[in-house]
Amino acid sequence: MLKFMFAPLFVLPLLRSADTENASVQIRVALIRNAENLSLATKGRLYLFEKPTGEKYQLLPDSNYLMKPKGNKIKIDGKSLYPPITLIPPEGEERIKINSQSYAGEITISIEDSLLCIVENVPIENYLAGVLPFEMSPLWPLEALKAQAVVSRTFAIKNLKPDLPYDITSGTEKQVYKGINEANKRILRAIQETKGEVLTYRGELIRAYFHSCCGGHTASNYAVWGEKIIRPLRGVRDPFCRHSKKYYWQLSAGSSEILKFARQHGSKAIKIKRLRVLKKDSSGRALKLKIYTNTKPLVVRAYDLRKFLGPRHFKSTLIYRIKKTKEGFKFYGKGWGHGVGMCQEGAKAMAKKGKSYRQILRHYYPKARIKHLK
């Protein structure tokens, strides 16, 4: 049975809450891309707007729907609709649940390369409630959470792309976002007490990067990504994270793995003899590595080897020793992540020492200013 109620007289706004104080900035988050189908559960009323035709529907409460792409249309419970379609929960009522995750904003579903693309349009402060619990533990000191709120807000707004279908993705390549399921009172307090605050330098928003642990010195954005260097992202000495469990790391890699990597980068070698750091940046992070083989040596980017071996294991490019072993090589390093911007472990330690979130931000982004969004 088709679970639609056609509502031709119902007037739907294209944006929800856009004129309220809490929604002065909206961000479009790509929740899911390249999906073959989509599971949708309704609790209360939920409205659907078929943009190309202007048709409006009300989905039945307490119902489950399965959406699939079919040609240039989206099929939902036997009915085919022209994309894009928008799902809009009434103000103050039950949220939209997609693939078991709850979302508070408008959901737009379109077709990209014959697959579904799901984007949420959500007020920035609501978006932060779905980011902070996954980027920093809610149990950490409040001032650290407040620093993270300012950083994540700045990072998100800096990524607004009005000419593209969405502004930001929801995975680790940007900021992890999983809707409103995990927000607790401490997270909401951190967001509320910093509401609208962002980091700027010379009148412009900065790219407020952050990472897990810097290993004693943050990196510059130029050294990591080749971006134009600015004072807040030049890198600073950081004594605060040294007691973190993430400060040191070790990784063993077999000679066969290094050989495979070398061959992928143009080497004709059949044997790896030695490996050393060839060039470092000002923070001590490896920029270039030199691989000695049975043929000519190969110079590669340390970033590329980290990506090849896996960033969850090869935790940073702050390598202080490479040891030859019977099986291959053992890497000794410090920190976890790219190293640019705020060190989360350092922010936690600073907050425990009584530092405010403003002091934390001043340390990691020197010369940046905290401003309120207008």
How would you describe this protein?
This protein has 374 residues and is of the alpha+beta class. The chain folds into three domains: 120 residues, no CATH class; 149 residues, no CATH class; 87 residues, no CATH class. 20% of the residues lie in helices and 33% in strands. It has nine helices and 25 strands. The strands form six sheets. It has an eight-stranded mixed β-sheet with strand order 1-5-4-9-12-13-2-14. Strands 8-7-6-3-10-11 form a six-stranded antiparallel β-sheet, with no helix packed on it. Strands 16-15-25 form a three-stranded antiparallel β-sheet. Helix 3 packs across helix 4, helix 3 packs antiparallel against helix 8 and helix 3 packs across helix 9. The N and C termini lie far apart (49 Å). 42% of the residues are buried.
What key attributes describe this structure?
single chain, 374 residues, alpha+beta, 3 domains, eight-stranded mixed beta sheet, six-stranded antiparallel beta sheet, 9 helices, 25 strands
